[in-house]
C-alpha cells in the first residue's frame, strides 16, 4: 500500500470479506503499549483482536495477520518495539506522551486531544516526519546514539548522561527481575535461575 496513491484502509480482507478495523491512531497506540507490556502472548492476541475489531472474526489467524499488516501500515514492522535502536526502544507512547503531543501541536497544529479521529497510517507518517528541532526527535536521537571509541571523553560522558536522563523506564516485571539479580549478586546468591 502506498499512502500517496491509495486511500488509508478502514477495513481489512478476511476470508474474502471486508471487515471493519479500528483505524484511529489511539487504537494502534493502545496496541503498541499492550504488546510492550508483560501480558502472556495468549492474552496479547485476545486483547489485540478486541482493540482492532468491533466484532472479532472467526478466522483468528487471518485476523491477527491482517491486524499486524494494518499496524505496520502495509509494511514490515514488529509491534511493541517503539522504534528500536541500539537494542532498546527509542520512544514510548506511554512515557513520551507529552513530548509527542507537543510535537504534533507545534509542527502540524494538530491537537491530538481535540482531533476527533486521525487514521493510524497518517499519524505514523506524521510521527516519522517530525523535524529534528522537536524535543521528542532530539530525545530519540539520544536514546539511539551509539557511543563509539572515536568519540571524545566529553562526548561519551554527555551521551551517557543524556541516555540515562531520557531512558524509558523498565516495566515493573523487568525492574523486579533486575532487583532480584542485583540482590543475589550482592549477597553471593545464585543468579542462574533468574537469567
TrEMBL record:
Which superkingdom does the taxonomy of this entry point to?
Bacteria
Q: Where is the organism placed in the taxonomic lineage, from the top?
A: Bacteria, Bacillati, Bacillota, Clostridia, Eubacteriales
Q: Name one Pfam family in it.
A: Phage_Gp15
How is this protein named in the record?
Answer: Bacteriophage Gp15 family protein
Amino acid at each position: 500500500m502506498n499512502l500517496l496513491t491509495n486511500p488509508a484502509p478502514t477495513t481489512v480482507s478476511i476470508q474474502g470479506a471486508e471487515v471493519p478495523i479500528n483505524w484511529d491512531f489511539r487504537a494502534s497506540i493502545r496496541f503498541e503499549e499492550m504488546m510492550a507490556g508483560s501480558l502472556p502472548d495468549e492474552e496479547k492476541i485476545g486483547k489485540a483482536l478486541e482493540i482492532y475489531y468491533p466484532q472479532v472474526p472467526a478466522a483468528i489467524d487471518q485476523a491477527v495477520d491482517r491486524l499486524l499488516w494494518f499496524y505496520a501500515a502495509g509494511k514490515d514492522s514488529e509491534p511493541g518495539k517503539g522504534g528500536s535502536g541500539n537494542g532498546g526502544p527509542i520512544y514510548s507512547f506511554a512515557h513520551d506522551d507529552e513530548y509527542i503531543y507537543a510535537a504534533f501541536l507545534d509542527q502540524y497544529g494538530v491537537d491530538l486531544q481535540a482531533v476527533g479521529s486521525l487514521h493510524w497510517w497518517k499519524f505514523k507518517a506524521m510521527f516519522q516526519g517530525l523535524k529534528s528541532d522537536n524535543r521528542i526527535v532530539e530525545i530519540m536521537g539520544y536514546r539511539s546514539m551509539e557511543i563509539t571509541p572515536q568519540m571524545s571523553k566529553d562526548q561519551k560522558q554527555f551521551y551517557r548522561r543524556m541516555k540515562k536522563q531520557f531512558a524509558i523506564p523498565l516495566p515493573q516485571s523487568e525492574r523486579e527481575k533486575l532487583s532480584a539479580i542485583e540482590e543475589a549478586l550482592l549477597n553471593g546468591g545464585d543468579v542462574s535461575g533468574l537469567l
